[in-house]
């Protein structure tokens, strides 16, 4: 009995080691595919990583970000929520989750995520302008303009922030 438990533990450790080695190869390929706009390929590669390592933050975050870019907002919320469960201090994951929630008109939840992202990374123009868009949805126009102004101050060439400020 004891030896079968030990052999299972050894086998699991060996499988985990193989999955980590595979992730070291697949994640850069997924990042490259994502950067080139090949979202289906990026998502498939992330899925392969997650089959062996279901809590791999990099694969979860990239998959969720790609899902946001493909307007798969419900899926993105689930994936990014899992990513944040693995690393709650990731400002980027919090911001991307906020963006997905905002697209689903879950504005109060989006606001909370975006504020967490900004608390973790105060000079985060994308999170600031996404917060501004969400604050408009919540009817908080003055706060929205202020968020866009902060984003513009941090990144003067940020066209989305100017556009969103104008809409606010």
Gyration radius (Cα, Å) is 19 Å
Helix content: over 70%
The fraction of residues in strands falls at: under 5%
The overall strand count is: 0
- The average pLDDT score comes to 92
Main sheet record: none
Q: Summarize this, please?
A:
The chain is built from 9 helices and no strands.
Structure in words:
The protein has helices spanning 2-35, 39-52, 57-69, 73-86, 91-103, 107-120, 125-137, 141-154, 159-167. By secondary structure, it is mainly alpha-helical. Helix 3 (57-69) packs antiparallel against helix 4, helix 4 runs antiparallel to helix 5 (91-103) and helix 8 (141-154) runs antiparallel to helix 9. The chain is elongated.
Fold topology:
Layout: H1 2-35, H2 39-52, H3 57-69, H4 73-86, H5 91-103, H6 107-120, H7 125-137, H8 141-154, H9 159-167
Helix pairs in contact: 1-2, 1-3, 2-3, 3-4, 3-5, 4-5, 5-6, 5-7, 6-7, 7-8, 7-9, 8-9
Notable traits:
168 residues; 0% strand; 82% helix; mainly alpha
């Amino acid at each position: 009995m004891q030896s079968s438990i030990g052999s299972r533990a050894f086998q699991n450790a060996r499988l985990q080691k193989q999955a980590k080695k595979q992730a070291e190869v697949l994640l850069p390929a997924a990042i490259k595919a994502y950067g080139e706009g090949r979202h289906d390929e990026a998502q498939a590669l992330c899925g392969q990583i997650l089959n062996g390592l279901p809590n791999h933050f990099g694969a979860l975050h990239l998959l969720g970000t790609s899902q946001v870019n493909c307007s798969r907002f419900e899926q993105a919320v689930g994936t990014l929520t899992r990513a944040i469960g693995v690393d709650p201090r990731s400002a980027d994951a919090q911001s991307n989750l906020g963006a997905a929630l905002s697209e689903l008109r879950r504005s109060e939840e989006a606001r909370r995520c975006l504020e967490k992202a900004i608390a973790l990374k105060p000079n985060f123009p994308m999170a600031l302008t996404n917060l501004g868009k969400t604050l408009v949805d919540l009817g908080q126009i003055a706060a929205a303009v202020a968020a866009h102004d902060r984003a513009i101050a941090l990144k003067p060439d940020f066209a989305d922030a100017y556009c969103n400020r104008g809409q606010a």
